[in-house]
Write the structure tokens for this entry.
Amino acid sequence: MGNMLTILAGGTIGEDLSFWAQVDASNAGIAVGRMFLRFSNLIGEKYAFNMRVGAFEPAVLTVSNRRTAFADYWILSRTLSTDMGWSLERTQKGIEFNGIVEGRFSYTAGLVEGFGMTHAAKDMYGRVMVKLGGMRLDGVEENRAVPVNPQPWRDNSVSVGAFAYKGNALVGIDTNAVENAFTMIGGEVNAWYDRFNLFGSVASRKDNNPFLGFKDKAVSTTVGFGELDVVAFPWLIPCVRYETWSSSRINSMNEIETFTDQQVKIGGIFVLRPNVTCSILSGWVQNETSPMDMSMGMVMPATGHVHGQLSETGQVLMHLMVGF
């Protein structure tokens, strides 16, 4: 047991250069988290070509666990197993280019070090999105004026996006490490109507060699979610989310089997003051138990290949976020 202090810093250095830094200090020492520079308007003045360099999470979806006041998304943070611990929002070192074209189309392309031990092959990813209706992605109205909206949560619009991630990880340590080439392809939709915001994403993933001791045993994974947020009042946002994860795991008999997990999150976000929010949520999780493990009176898969085990079942949680 020990204490940890997290120091966050962010700001601008001139008009087109900004930075973010995170340092964690604990009894174990000092660790550097996300730390990057963002260069805006490398070409032109309408944010059509920008760059981010340093240690960051690849921006493949518009949603992010780092920005939500509700609950984390499986599609961003859940790992395949204890062997293959990569996830979409894992911090990586690299370079990323992004931009907005004509206020309605956005793109992202990046190159990062990748998961596991240091290796020559790099991971690549990309995302495109188009927004129809509502406020432009650059926040400027068609006549180039800054919009004045006393109710900014009313943004009648539909956004559609697609992404792809191609990686090559070294699973394991030292001389026991094996190469796992993997891909993840998906899409997302975000629709606003009056006070209602319905959005979701689905992705298909394939790992060619994700489990140690099972050479060339490919695994396919499908993950998705759908969420409805309602701005009941400017200070109260009820939320409900459904998520599913279908993949493969190693059971207690050291065999590969498929499974499907599901969960429902319901709760609300309270904006107590500017930069002060409180969220209350309850979660119901259905973990599919291995038939073989069930017959043997076991609940968990074999040690060393545990697929992201979940523990929240009907719990009520409260989370307070303060920014200054």
